[in-house]
Write a structure and sequence with these properties.
Strand content: 5-15%
Number of strands: 12
Strand order of the largest sheet: 2-1-3-4-5
Distance between the termini: 55 Å
Structural class: alpha/beta
């Protein structure tokens, strides 16, 4: 038996047909160094979903468990996992898919390796390096961030970060450097490719010897030397001039370079992280970017989503920025009018624009009380009442589509939320006949609302309740 101190805990759920040897799988995993625990709603961490067929029950179970952490779908069917089935499982929220053989050591080791790695990724996601710098708990944001964390910690791959301006690419690059496991790691070396001038480009990257050109009064290290054994971050790499692209490719491939005006070959080894808001593959088609360089810098590619695709993160980000701008206790908070305004804006400049807006609001606020509508600069205030449908539905529906939520799930969730909101609204008014008024507003019968209430009341205490007509 393995040492209990190193056993890897994980949740375990089975959605299987008759004849499936679930207890045998559980025993084999426990004997192999894992600590299987029954799945419960809200249980955090990675886990295993056992299934025999990708049917409606298995899909529903996957939708439930995927919110707790990474999911390994483990197939017990004799024929194994069909290719189309594997991709469908990944689209529906599984992180990986495996077929279980006869409980061989290789099967157990494969599950163990994933659970251990995924558990470590979750620990890193909860660390201050991530939590205090790349704020957000939305599914789309955490999914990308988990992949960045995993690549940064477990590999030394070059990383290409894409996304619109203001989505946090520099913060992600700093995270990659912070999580890099090389013992001789140095501070991140940043080069902004939009500011490189042709006359000084060589010196910027390669460094120069004293007297190599007018004004070179002393020798100077360039980015390649400064990043040795560390991380070199090229921001807006799509702006790199063609001649420098060729020279960069040589350094990446061979790890050697010469200073400007020097004759000695110097060596360097660094992790390369690049960022761009351009479509580099389109730039290659237009002859503006080298294809061979692209495939060197893009061993691991991550697209950081714009803020409009992660609307659930707007208020946590705003609160985070407010904490930075107005430290101390008690800390002011945004009142409902300001919070509604913040959520309803478009943010073409993404997180950077949100931070600047919060800074302008904080500058006008006095005291420690709530930040009210008057603190919003006049130029930032809503010109008119926003379209409630556009404000409330467009961003969440776009996010739901990105996450693979089905139309039936959206319809059911919207229906339940609308009924609950209207009934609560009429209840708060404290007048008799609340169900009648709620039914009139919703365009349904009182009986429909009564059955909806009974159904949801029964579900809340674990019953099945009657179905709505």
């Amino acid at each position: 038996m393995p040492d209990e101190s190193v056993r890897a805990p994980f949740w375990f759920r089975a959605v299987t047909g008759p004849g499936a040897h679930v207890s045998g799988v559980r025993s084999a995993l426990a004997a192999g160094g894992l600590d299987p625990r029954p799945w419960e709603p809200g249980v955090p961490g990675p886990g295993v979903l056992l299934y025999t067929a990708l049917d409606g029950e298995a899909r529903a179970a996957l939708r439930e468990v995927r919110h707790g952490g990474r999911v390994l779908a483990l197939c017990l069917a004799r024929e194994g996992v069909r290719p189309a089935e594997a991709w469908a499982l990944l689209r529906n929220g599984a992180q990986d898919v495996m077929a279980w053989g006869e409980g061989r050591d290789a099967d157990v080791a494969a599950v163990l390796s994933r659970m251990v790695r995924w558990r470590r990724v979750e620990e890193l996601m909860d660390s201050s390096a991530v939590r205090d710098n790349l704020v957000g708990g939305s599914t789309v944001w955490r999914s990308v961030l988990e992949d960045v964390v995993e690549t940064a910690y477990f590999t030394d791959n070059p990383v290409l970060l894409t996304g619109e301006t203001g989505t946090g690419k520099e913060l992600a690059a700093r995270l990659v450097n912070a999580l890099d496991q090389r013992s001789a790691r140095t501070p991140l070396v940043l080069v902004d490719c939009t500011t490189i001038t042709p006359t000084l480009a060589g010196s910027e990257f390669f460094g120069h010897e004293k007297g190599s050109f007018t004004g070179a009064l002393s020798a100077r290290d360039g980015a390649f030397a400064l990043a040795d054994q560390g991380t070199l971050f090229l921001d807006e790499v799509g702006e790199l001039p063609p001649d420098l692209q060729a020279e960069l490719l040589r350094v990446i491939q061979e790890g050697t370079y010469k200073r400007v005006g020097g004759n000695t070959w110097l060596s360097t080894r660094f992790r390369l992280v690049c960022a761009t808001n351009q479509d580099l593959e389109e730039c290659i088609r237009r002859g503006r970017f080298r294809g061979d360089l692209f495939y060197r810098i893009a061993a691991s590619r991550f697209h950081l989503p714009p803020l409009r695709e992660r609307p659930d993160d707007i208020l946590p980000l705003a609160d985070h920025f407010l904490e930075q701008l107005i430290p101390g206790h008690p800390r002011p908070h945004f009142d409902p009018a300001v919070r509604e305004m913040l959520v309803g804006l478009r943010y073409p400049g993404n997180v950077r624009e949100l931070r600047q807006l919060v800074a302008r609001i904080a500058a006008r606020h006095a005291g420690t009380g709530a930040i009210t509508a008057g603190a919003v600069p006049p130029s930032e205030r809503p010109r008119q009442d926003p379209d409630p449908v556009d404000r409330s539905l467009t961003a969440p529906l776009r996010l739901a589509a990105v996450q693979g939520v089905t139309l039936a799930e959206v319809t059911e969730a919207t229906r339940n939320e609308m009924i609950a909101l209207v009934i609560a609204d009429e209840t708060e008014r404290g007048r008799p006949g609340r169900l009648r008024r709620a039914a009139d507003r919703l365009g349904v019968s009182v009986r429909t609302l009564q059955m909806w209430q009974r159904s949801h009341s029964a579900q809340a205490v674990g019953g099945t309740g009657p179905r709505e007509p």
